[in-house]
Amino acid sequence: MRAWALALCTAAVQGKIYFQETFEDGLGQWEEAADVKLGLFENGHGPLGGFYGKGLRTTDPKGKFYAISANWEEETDNEGKTFVLSYTLQNPQNLSCGGGYLKVLPTVEDQEDFDGDVPYWIMFGPDICGAKSLSLFFDAKGTHDHSLHWRKAAPTPEDRLTHLFTLVVRPDDTYEISIDGDKYEWGKIEDDFEFTAPKKIEDPEHRKPEDWVDHEEIPDPRDKRPKNWDDDAEIDDPNAVEPEDWDEDRDGVWDPPGIPNPNYQGPWKPKMIPNPKFKGHWKPRMIDNPAYKPMPNLHVPLVKVGAIGIDIWQVESGTVYDNIIIADNEAEVEAFNKKHFFAHRDAEKAAYAKLEKEEKAKKEREQVEEREKAKAFAAARGEEL
Question: Is 35 a residue whose pLDDT tops 60?
Fold first, then answer.
């Protein structure tokens, strides 16, 4: 009896790993889309070597879209379960614009046709374009054009190191994001994605009182303009001379031209002081929203999921995806990441610190050489710098 109970506990702790990929055996699980206009992936690593082994690397030197997917054996509806998606990503090329996210989606029947129009459940990961932020989308209606964007905004690492991105979706309809093992963002799915109308809304009947004071500062009534304050932007040019041929009857009274006033101090304003009557910034009170309808099971996809996909645009190639794991148990993912990410992180950091030091020294040498060349060129022409 005790052995049977222990076996059940062990199985519960181990959980289910739906998908894992370290790319040490190449790209066997993956199939690229067939469109010849797409950029190509390779089984490779960053320029300083494979601290984490080989990964899935973008290769095209020009700006390209990329599309690739992999199915896993057992689909899941995730009901009543924890869902964990974790992977590492490196942008050693100093990516100026491009995606670095993953998609969790239903089994892809025709992987050669996989593209951005294929419906997905979750899209998660960095988007280094414009805001350069971490993206998180949940599907709302089972179609790619009804995905719900995260209401929060969070920056994403922009250096050349490998980073670990982890998303946990829990059966209490909450989520948690961590970067490099550190808790980064979290919340309720219902609160942070517009699956339903908000619980609370501003009371349309609540009006701002007429005597409400919301100016934080006021001009200091005791502050007086200095007698010698000069706020004339222009003055008459004292060196100007009336032209000899000036005829006052014909040309009118002569006025010297204006010049910028060297003593101009700008328009005088009294200094501002805290307003003793300030009551705070007024906001209408919040009331229950009659349109709100609670939505349970937001941790459950509308359609069972059984695939992982990447469809991204990148201006510069060189991004390396690696160490992907999808499971229903956080401990399993933590053990995987300890082996495949944290065990190699310090070595990579040291290597890039050395590289940056060498790059800085090289840049300084080049600047010195350029200055010496400029001096030599000036000396040859009899000039001084």
Answer: yes
| Helix count and strand count (H, E) for the chain | 5, 22
The answer to whether the CB of 123 falls within 8 A of the CB of 136 is: yes
- Cα 36 to Cα 182: distance, rounded to the nearest angstrom: 40
Query: In angstroms, rounded to a whole number, what is the distance separating the alpha carbons of residues 58 and 321?
Result: 9
Please report which residue ranges of 78-209 form alpha helices under DSSP H. 189-192
Predicted TM-score (pTM) of the model is 0.75
Beta bridge partners of 305: 76
- Tell me the one-letter amino acid at 193: F
**Can you name the residues that pair with 55 across neighbouring β-strands?**
44
Secondary structure of the chain: what % helix, strand, coil (to 5)? 20, 30, 50
Confidence of residue 285 (pLDDT cuts 50, 70, 90): very high
- 10 Å Cβ neighbour count for 17? 16
Element at 57 (helix H, strand E) = strand 55-58
The amino acid at residue 326 is I
AA identity, residue 364: E
What token pair was written down for 348?
């990579």
